[in-house]
Amino acid sequence: xxxxxxxxxxxxxGGSLRLACVASGFSFxxxxxYWLRQAPGKGLxxxxxxxxAGTTKHYEDSVKGRxxxxxxxxxxxxxxxxxxxxxxxTATYYCAKDGxxxxxxxxxxxxxxx
Length: 114
Fold this sequence. Notes:
Elements: E1 2-6, E2 9-11, E3 17-24, E4 33-38, E5 44-50, E6 57-59, E7 67-72, E8 77-82, E9 91-96, E10 108-112
């Protein structure tokens, strides 16, 4: 299983970023996928999930209305569009094939600061 997230960076509050994750080594199109994050000094937190077909999505309460998860089952890619970013969104973001993050790849850092 290989999962590689990218797209993080430094952004001011109110800004946007789009994270991407390339998956390989398993049947991506048949696997629900998740985005998790870990802020400095805190535990791993599930941010969003999407069903294998992309028809069902869920979000952690603090990101509802601001984040949008999507997937491309042809390209084996998972995305997270993050809008209206807040300082509390600062974290390392991971894509994972399980909701607990046991099978997650290398993360991408998102820093929201003025």
